Amino acid sequence: MKKYLITVCSLLIFSGKCLKATDIMADTSSYSLEERLLASVWTHDRVHSGRTMEDVRHDFTARFGKPAPPKRTILRWEHKLFLTGSIKDKPRTGRPSTRRDTCAEVKASVLQSPKKSLRKRSSELGIPKTTMLTHMTQDLDLKLFKPSLVNELSDNDMDKRHVARVTFNISESE
Description:
The structure is a single chain. This protein has helices at residues 2-15, 33-49, 53-64, 71-84, 99-112, 118-125, 129-139, 155-160. It is mainly α and 174 residues long. The protein has 2 domains: 2-84, no CATH class; 99-139. Helix 2 packs across helix 4. The longest helix is centred in the N-terminal third of the chain and has 17 residues, at 33-49.
């Protein structure tokens, strides 16, 4: 195991990539960076050690306690690691999500003025109303207050209302 650890450390130094301990998932993969990296290094090392892919998959299961990925996936990880120097996937295309970035601003705004309307708060912070609604309902677990106009009852209304009377006939059966 020490040999593998040294190989992984030297690989990280030579590749110039810095992996943080908080980077558990590289992307949408169900395997962590550590799992992907070690499987790639073990696969690359198997040529020198005379081990088979089944041995690598068995070691993966023994080390991480979950089923190993298919052989093709591990070979793809190895190819990517030694070709690009990184095990991470390319960034996803599309519009990036900024909801997590603005969550602190919304929370501070709600704490500062909790009675402000959603529309006014979104225009002041420059955040779309739908994003603001998502922040408040999902991230901050708030329920929105929708004011409604309630008419007062006058004396005439009291006379006009109908009182429902319910009578119960209780008959004792013997």
